[in-house]
Amino acid sequence: MDTIFGIDLGTTNSSLAILRDGIPAIIPIDDNGLVPSVVSLDPESGEFVIGWRAKRRSILFPDYTVKSIKRLMGKDTMFLLNS
Amino acid sequence: MRTSTDRLTRIEMALEANKTRQTVNAASSGLTAEQSHDLIALADSLFYILKQFDDQDTLRIFKERVDAVLTVFGLSMLPLEDIPFDDQHHEVREVGSDPQRPNIWILQTLRPGYLYNGRLLRPAWVVVNRLDNQ
Fold it and tell me: Are strands B124-129 and B90-96 parallel, antiparallel or unpaired?
């Protein structure tokens, strides 16, 4: 049986759903169906964090955080962190 | 190597775990979302009033007493200060610079955060110390 996933890649928030027995269900990430479309790099550990954690630290590390990247997808644009 | 079946099984388990957690949370304390909201609003109000006195001992005693009440309902207030920033519990609202305090530590809590049965209910809004320009 085919499994169908749906991804809503939004400018501000994203979400992921699965179709089970004809019924769509949101897959929670970090207990939340909505995930901010944000990625942040921890400058000390080198770890990438995404979603809510990335959004919560975006003011602290603005040069290491990427938001609203959707409008640049598909374009030949490189985003440099700490540039 | 992970197969697509493995991944699907993991997703199914995550969905079931989330459903179970919601059921357990609802049943464990008998606290409705509205009651939880009211309790947090009350604790917030007391926090804002006491914060005006700018007295660390008063705030510490307040937090101990509020925690004693909230714990009965499965709620707890996150620590207010003297702790490092943690993006799993805190949301940075302002960045400050105090050479007397460690880097990436919380200087001030603007709005308290809460846990419900150990899980984040609402992140704390905080001012974080940033000493360098990394």
Answer: parallel
Cβ atoms B128, B95 nearer than 8 A: yes
Write the burial class of residue B5 (CB in 10 Å: 0-12 exposed, 13-18 middle, 19+ buried): exposed
- Across the interface, whether the CB atoms of A59 and B95 are under 8 A apart is answered yes
Instruction: Tell me whether residues B87 and A18 touch, CB distance under 8 A.
Output: no
Of the candidates A3, A18, A57, the beta carbon closest to that of B92 is on: A57
Beta-bridge mates of residue A7 = A16
pLDDT band at A80 (very low <50, low <70, confident <90, very high): confident
Q: Which residues pair with B109 in a beta bridge?
A: B126
Length of chain A as a residue count: 83
- Return the residue matching tokens 């000390």: A44
Whether the model clears a pTM of 0.80, i.e. scores above it, the answer is no
Q: Percent of chain B scored above 70 by pLDDT?
A: 76
Q: How many helices (H) and strands (E) does chain B have?
A: 3, 6
Any idea which residue has 């550990």 for tokens? A45
CA B93 to chain A, closest CA, distance in angstroms equals 7
Query: Nearest residue of B to residue A55 by CA position?
Result: B91
